[in-house]
Structures are given as C-alpha cells and as structure tokens.
Amino acid sequence: MSFLVRKAGGALEPFNPGKLLRSLEKAGADKETAEATLARIEKEYSRRPRGQEILTTHEIYAHAFDHLRARKRPLAARYSLKRALLDLGPSGFPFESYVAELFIHDGYEAKVDQIVQGGCVEHEIDVILTKGEETLYVEAKFHNSLAFKTDLKVALYVKERMDDIVAAGHVGARGLLATNTKFTDKAREYAECSLLMLLSSDYPQGSNLYQRIERAGAFPVTALTSLGRREKTALLEAKIVLCSQILKEPSVLPAAGITGHKAEVILEEAGALCSFETVL
Hints:
globular; 5-stranded mixed beta sheet; Trna Endonuclease, Chain: A, domain 1; 10 strands; alpha/beta; 3-stranded mixed beta sheet
C-alpha cells in the first residue's frame, strides 16, 4: 500500500513497508507477527478520512507498539528502544549514567560527573571511562525528541575541551561525544577528521548505540512497558537506569512505591527482556 509518512522533523516520504518489517524483525518479531503488524498499520491508513491520509512516524510507531505489546511485552520493549532512550530525561543526567553503565558492560571503569583540570580552566566531564591505558572523556548530549541532532558546534566545543585537557598532561586521553539521537553530517565529518569519537543511534557502523545495547543486554528501565511514567521517573530518581538493576535489587521497586502484583509483573517483564533473543 502506498501513502506518505510525515517524519519527526516535518519532512514527507513514501511509506516503506520493507523498512518497517526489518525494524520489527530486528526487534525479534517472527515473520507472522511482523506481517500482522504491517497489516494493522495499513488498515489504520485505509480508515483515514479524505484529506487526512498522511500518517506520522509517531502514529506508525504507536500502532506497531500496541500490536506487539498485546502479544509479547519484551518484543514491544525492544521495538520501543528509541522512545525508551528519549524517556531518560528531562535533566539528561540519567542518560549520562546510562552511558556509563553501557561501557561498564564492556569492561570499563566509569566515573560520572567529574571535574578535571585543563591547561587553562577546569572542565565538568559527564563521564570518565578507563580501561587499561585507555581513558575516554565523555560528553553526553541528551535530546527529548528524535527530530533533534547534535551538530558541528557541539563537536567543536568538545574537541576544544579535550585539547585543553591534553594540554594539562592527560596524554593519550580521547574525547567521546555521545547522543541518544543522531549527528549532523558536518559533525560526523569534523569528528572523523579530528579523531573525536562519536556514539549515536546510527554511528559508528557496527558499534552504534543500539548495537552496543543489544550486545550488552543493557536495556534502559524506561523500556519496560509495564511501568507508568511516574514509576519510571521514581526509578530514575533513585539512579536505576537498567532493567537488570531491578532484577539484582528487587527492593528498589517498593522503594519507588511499586508493590504487590504490579511489582511481580514488572519483574517478570524485566527478566524476559534481559533474556529475550533477537536478531542483530
């Protein structure tokens, strides 16, 4: 079925059923579930009144998410990973902690919210990662909308800070600019030229943010479909950013006001999400 889709930034593009099917299958959906989800979205389009035929990417996501959640919650949680990362706000601090946890799974030691003396001034560093002789200074840029991209100005700012830090004697230190959305083309071009490391939803190829999450099984607590917005906020305020933290410390749930059958449902979903197999 052919129709137009309005993206988060406002641009229009033809609906690509193959792209939707691939995203569903990547989340772990079998062929039957993926095709049934596509059929639901096409049915929704056919019901639209004349003059309102354009669907937004958010509407497509919402219909697909509801369809998956009714069948298998861990599958819906994996499919909603982009939105789950957007829920790690609005302060941005949970995203910094999440990036730290993600690299800890790769064998790094991590320190969050540090002050480092540069050659000229002190710098507030979101995360410092160390592994052997490698030290990464992370600037974590959180956005609460998929329409926002981290641009060249931010990349230049981070590189200048790193130059000042290296000037203070931190030889071999490298900067890493991480975002929960994407980078502009200019930001990527500059980073590749200046050797500034980047991490986003689609970069670098083979080891982007989502691929790292899948490999580590480090799913954000905000991905749990059984949690309400207030409950997610309460857990984030308690510095719980990973689903696996709930499994290791179930006591965080009553501390966040979640008890009884609701707590049992959340623990069951968290356990299933952490063990759910998917196709990378």
